[in-house]
Each structure stands twice: as C-alpha cells, then as structure tokens.
Amino acid sequence: MARSPLAAVGSVADAAAWYAALFLGALVLLSSSLQEGGPGELDEPAGGGRLVLGRPCDEIYVVGEGETLHSISDKCGDPFIVERNPHIHDPDDVFPGLVIMITPSSSKPPV
C-alpha cells in the first residue's frame, strides 16, 4: 500500500524535530563546557560586585554580596543610579545578582 503525502510530510517533520533537538543539546553541552573552564568575561573582584569585561564600573553592573546602591555609587562615581534604573522601585531592596545600568564618572577613577 502506498504512503499518503501527508504521512511523508509527517515523517520529515519528525526527523527535522529530532535533528533540531540533537543540535540544541550539543549547543547546551558546548556552552556549559566553555563556561566552566574556558575564558570567561566575568571576573569576581575581592570587594564584592562583578567586573564585567574586567572593568569595575562598566555601563552594566551586577550587584555583589553586601553591596548597596550607596557603595556602588561611591565606587563608580554615579549618584543617579536609581533614576537610570526604573526597575529599582526601592533603593533599599538591592540584592546580589541584580543588574543595573550605571554611567561611570570620568572625573573619579574606579577603585
């Protein structure tokens, strides 16, 4: 008995789905192996927050353990962190891992 064209399309779609799943699985494995021991873009400084691309006060800053907006403002020379980050509703509700945008001051060198 001959296969209908609809069955042939279904088998091609199944094969494509399997290949896509294998490809995505390989990408996940590859990316996780690069993050563990490969050259990373994020370095952890001794004082708390993360250094993005090796600079302590880049435009995108990840809050570290024990940091406050005041300590980040002092370190980076940006007194307007709350105004530039509308997702921060309460300045006292800052937690490790929070991503904020800062504008580093060129007059005060980063510490």
Structural description of this entry:
The structure is a single chain. Helices cover 41% and strands 9% of the residues. The chain is mainly alpha-helical. It has 2 domains: 1-39; 42-101, Roll (Membrane-bound Lytic Murein Transglycosylase D, Chain A). The strands form 2 sheets. A two-stranded antiparallel ribbon has the order 1-2. A two-stranded antiparallel ribbon has the order 3-4. The protein is elongated and about 75 Å long. The termini are far apart. Mean pLDDT is 75; it is low at 37-47.
Fold blueprint:
Layout: H1 5-37, E1 42-43, E2 51-52, E3 60-62, H2 69-76, H3 81-84, E4 99-101
Antiparallel strand pairs: 1-2, 3-4
Summarize the structure.
By secondary structure, the chain is mainly α. It is built from three helices and four strands; from the N terminus they run H-E-E-E-H-H-E. The protein folds into two domains: 1-39; 42-101, Membrane-bound Lytic Murein Transglycosylase D, Chain A.
H/I helix tally: 3
Percent of residues in helical segments?
Answer: 40-55%
Structural class: mainly alpha
CATH level-1 class of the largest domain: Alpha Beta
Tell me the span between the first and last alpha carbons: 78 Å
